[in-house]
Design a protein that fits this description.
- By secondary structure, this protein is of the alpha+beta class.
- Among the domains are: about 85-210, ATPase, nucleotide binding domain (Nucleotidyltransferase, domain 5); about 305-405 and about 485-510, ATPase, nucleotide binding domain (Nucleotidyltransferase, domain 5).
- It contains 19 helices and 23 strands.
- A hairpin with a 2-residue loop joins strand 17 and strand 18 (about 295-300).
- Helix 1 (about 50-70) packs across helix 6 (about 160-170), helix 12 crosses helix 13 (about 330-335) and helix 15 packs across helix 18 (about 480-495).
- It is globular, with a radius of gyration of 22 Å.
Length: about 525
């Protein structure tokens, strides 16, 4: 009988780090999640403690290995997924000069606007694949230079959270092509730092990490960390890719024409092309998976983070009910929403609580209810919030379709996919069948499959279709889909009409809340 092999995927997310151990067939053996805070003292700031996240990586791996009770000699690799767009400044000794400034931080909105309007921003986007926006490390570096010159004076490196983790583990600064392609500083054709983008940011290539393929391997863990995690020092660590592109791989959405929809803390719509492709209108991203797999799509800031806001700020009684019943508070909220008619009886919600990326690319965008009348109750507002998140994703789909054509299949993943109500809502709003893999660990599974490819255990990614397990399929319900076809044009027109007012209210908030 052949020796069993195990593969560990680690996903460094915005609100938690997750480690999941798989066997060769894709079966989950064990897993663990460690949560941490997203510091948001005002509407513009969204930072995290890099050292806390690094501890979360160590702890999640340690707990997963212990739960699994495997012989660690059978552990073939550890492969990484990570959230994109973070920025950390460190000095020459590797000491932190800033927190991790996350994708949700919008303090560089005015700098992004300046780059777009005055610094040849659109041409930079066409080469780098990252829309000019406050999420982009390109914009963040420029903001740091203006607002915190004392930090930049001592900054030896500008890195992301995965680079920080790998430096702690191995003592070297490397960045995979996938994370690099989400910085706004990386030339997609040359697979190297873009000279004009560097000039705009006012930094040198030596102040950035060395770019490597997503299949790059590192060995020789720092002994202290290897002992803590309970794994051998010689186990290869695969640098991996970003969470978004690995989610595509992890749900078997890597063939052209297959669309992946993910709603986690944030959300995205993505499809794969065989070469880099950017949008003449600047609405979509293009990120690397491998040299032959490029992920085109649009990210939204406002996914599950909006549901968490709804839970924390408006649903205290529902949370208490959930505790008494021993069920997830989110299940209570979706059950309440399911008692309301599709369309929430004419109540619309724009979920722009953290600004918005695709399709607006407007860090000044703000959330709103529209159509609120005396007959609407809390349950209508809950339903409208859930629908608003999916409506926003639908508007991203329209932009992606212009570039890559109408999808032949939609694969959905993320925390929302655990809810039958959300899955059906997605099918009804998109008016297309939606397929949901049984495994919800898409980014970790994608990291593991990429890792298997990196060490030569597989020749291509076809194995993933057998690893994702059975699927659920939701067909659109014609009555609900018809209602959404009426409401979606109103939803889209509103966000366009409010563009000037978004800027006005954001200016007011910056003036009075900073």
């Amino acid at each position: 009988m052949p020796e069993q092999s195990y593969y560990l995927g680690v996903d460094i997310g915005t609100t938690s780090t997750k480690a999941v151990l798989f066997d060769r067939a894709g079966k989950v053996i064990a897993g663990d999640t460690v949560f941490y805070a997203l510091e948001t003292p005002n509407p513009l700031v969204a930072e995290q403690d890099p050292e806390e996240i690094f501890r979360a990586v160590l702890t999640s791996v340690r707990k997963t290995i212990r739960k699994s009770e495997i012989d660690t000699k059978q552990l073939k690799l550890v492969s990484f997924s990570s959230a994109m767009h973070s920025l950390i400044a460190v000095d020459a000794t590797g000491s932190l000069l800033t927190q991790s400034i996350t994708w949700a931080d919008t303090r560089s909105a005015k700098h992004a606007k300046y780059i777009k309007e005055r610094m040849n921003g659109h041409e930079i986007y066409l080469r780098t694949g990252t829309p000019i926006h406050a999420m982009s490390p390109l914009s963040k570096v420029l903001w740091l230079k203006d607002e915190k010159p004392e930090v930049c004076e001592h900054a030896a490196k500008f890195i992301g959270i995965k680079e920080f983790v790998f430096h702690e583990l191995f003592g070297t600064y490397v960045v995979d092509h996938s994370i690099a392609s989400a910085t706004g500083l990386f030339n997609l054709e040359q697979l190297d730092w873009d000279k004009e983008a560097l000039a705009v940011a006012g930094i040198t290539r030596e102040q950035l990490s060395h770019p490597v393929p997503t299949t790059h391997q590192l060995t020789g863990l720092v002994t202290e960390h290897a002992l803590f995690m309970g794994i051998p020092e010689h186990v290869p660590f695969i640098i991996g890719a970003s969470d978004g592109v690995l989610a595509n791989l992890g749900v078997d959405a890597i063939e052209p024409g297959v669309l992946a929809v993910t709603i986690g803390t944030s959300g995205a719509i993505r499809t794969v092309t065989t070469e880099p492709k950017t949008d003449p209108k600047g609405r979509t991203f293009c990120y690397a998976l491998t040299e032959n797999h490029w992920v085109v799509g649009g990210p939204v800031n406002n996914g599950g983070i909006i549901l968490r806001w709804l839970r924390d700020e408006f649903a205290s009684s529902e949370v208490e009910t959930a505790k008494r019943l021993g069920i997830d508070p989110y299940d209570v909220l979706t059950k309440i929403a399911d008692t309301v008619n599709p369309g929430a009886d004419g109540l619309l919600f724009h979920p722009y609580l953290t600004g918005e990326r695709a399709p607006l690319w407007n860090a000044n965008a703000r959330g709103s209810f529209f159509g609120l009348s005396i007959h609407h109750k809390k349950q209508h507002m809950i339903r409208a919030v859930l629908e608003g998140i999916v409506f926003n994703l639908y508007t991203v789909l329209l932009a992606v379709e212009e570039l890559t054509g109408e999808p032949v299949r939609i694969q959905a993943s993320g925390g929302f996919a655990r809810s039958d109500m959300w899955r059906q809502l997605l099918a009804d709003v998109f008016d297309k069948p939606v397929v949901i893999p049984e495994s919800f660990e898409s980014s970790c599974l994608g990291a593991v499959v990429l890792g298997m490819y990196a060490i030569g255990e597989i020749d291509d990614f076809s194995i993933v279709s057998d690893m994702i397990g059975q699927t659920h399929t939701h067909e659109p319900q014609e009555e609900a889909a018809g209602i959404y076809r009426e409401l979606l044009p109103i939803y889209i027109r509103l966000s366009r009409l409010l563009t000037a007012e978004y800027e006005s209210i954001a200016d007011f908030q910056r003036k009075h809340l900073e």
